[in-house]
Amino acid sequence: MEIIHYFAPISGYAYLGIAALMEMAAKQGCSIVHAPVDIQAVFAASSVTPPAAQSAAKKKYRAADMKRWAARRSLPVNLQPKYWPANGVLAARYIIAAGELSGERGPMAQAVLEATWARDLDIANEDTMQLLSRELGLDANAMKEVASSAQTTGIAQQHTDDAIALGLFGSPTYLFADEMFFGQDRLDFLEQDIVKRKAMAMA
User: Fold this and answer.
1) Which pLDDT tens digit goes with each residue over 77-107?
2) pTM of this prediction?
3) What is the CB neighbour count within 10 angstroms for residue 56?
């Protein structure tokens, strides 16, 4: 029972959804593969206009929608973060490195998303990623070494390649049993599908 969580480290909607995703997965007994992607490459492959380049009207609505979801989920949110959009490549590598060193990517994935949308930190900055590593109790020097390795770079690229091959076009997107669910506002549908498949397996 595995959920693949494709997301951009700078994604506001991924930030709004990650805690709810992890809570739901724990409730349903599912594991999560947090798969950070190069969202600019995903947007380019799917001919999607990045949020930062969208019209003023769409940006205004997006901010209002994020505010509503933040209130519903009791999350702090800065709707005009100082470091957005930022290059998420370094953060993606640190998320993967955290998995290699601690056995789980989730805490770093959540910390990275919170850094942009709740703390006004620059996730494209090495000092920020070192800070987040230390806050999570990880060896910052070891994290830097693993994050910069060819193996980690290759894993990060593979996540992006997989996302493009699957036809993904935005963040976050959840993949479960070959079913795709786009957007953190589709977590209810994802859970419904999980429950249905569990019931079928037990029948």
Assistant:
1) 999 999 999 999 999 999 999 999 999 999 9
2) 0.96
3) 7
The DSSP output letter for 176 is: E
Distance between CA atoms of residues 159 and 121, nearest Å: 24
Tokens, residue 160: 């992006």
* Structural domains of the chain, with CATH: 2-202 (3.40.30.10)
Structure tokens at 54: 């969208």
Task: Categorize the per-residue pLDDT at 158 as very low, low, confident or very high, splitting at 50, 70 and 90.
Answer: very high
- Looking up tokens 């933040």 gives 70
- Alpha helix (H) residue ranges in 29-171: 39-46, 56-72, 89-102, 106-117, 126-135, 140-147, 150-166
Residue 124 is classified by DSSP as T
How large is the average pLDDT for residues 151-171?
98
Peptide bond into 76 cis (omega under 30): no
32: β partners: 3
Residue among 11, 74, 17, 46 at smallest CA distance from 189: 17
What mean pLDDT comes out for the span 113-131? Answer: 98
